Amino acid sequence: MSEAADKWAELFELSPPERLFNDVMARCYDRWRFVLSFRITAKASMDAATKQIEADKITFVANMLNDPEFDRVFIDKAKFFEQTPPDKIVEQMTAQTIAEMDLMMNAASVVFVHSILDAAALDFCRVTVLAAPKEWESIVEKRGVSLAEAKAANYDQLLEQKLKDYFVHLEREGLLTKADLLLARCKPETKWSPMNNYEYDRDRLEYLDNFRHNIIHGDGLGLELEDADDEIDYLMRTALYFMGLVNKRYGFRLAPPYLFQVMADFRKPSA
After folding, report:
1. Domain boundaries of the chain, sorted by first residue
2. Which of 9, 30, 62, 188 counts the most CB atoms within 10 A of its CB?
């Protein structure tokens, strides 16, 4: 980060875990801005583009009617257009184009927001490791330690190295695994929430996790996501829930001047 960010961190006396805590949220807020801008613009564009799309479809259908080239691809063009009037074709094609754009917008949004949440879950786990590494002993205690390692380091050094090795593995694990590990460290009460109108629902998170997986690796690109705005908002608010968990368990808080500086640093070109 920049020297300005370092100065704010020093001014607020941010410890390494608390600084990472702020970094995670700075990244979330910054990336969410892009997703929300994308959705707002896409929705506005769809409304504005409807007439243009309709005009394009009218041109396409008119060509089908009048261009002799299309005679070769229809068994009986006249009968086809008699059964399916041109104005109906235009209406259906326009509606389909708008619907497909909506599906694409929602699919892309889920993928983007899920990736933001996945990264936040991983880094909030890292925050808890920095704050209390021994709370992760049960996770790494079964991972073997060689005699050479045992002779070369003390317990704290061994634990630190094993945790580093484990997090290389954890980075490749799914969102739910990271979420489960974070909740196990923070131990929230049943139905605890740091915000109104939000309750952590593992089943709902699993559904959205699978939905994203099907978009990337399966046939989910054309699947409809009901209440897409609510579901995307839920993924964003889950990151805030994770932040609240860490705040509740370890007392870390946001330092707005530092957080805003980090967000500004994201916009600067890398050297």
Report:
1. 3-266
2. 9
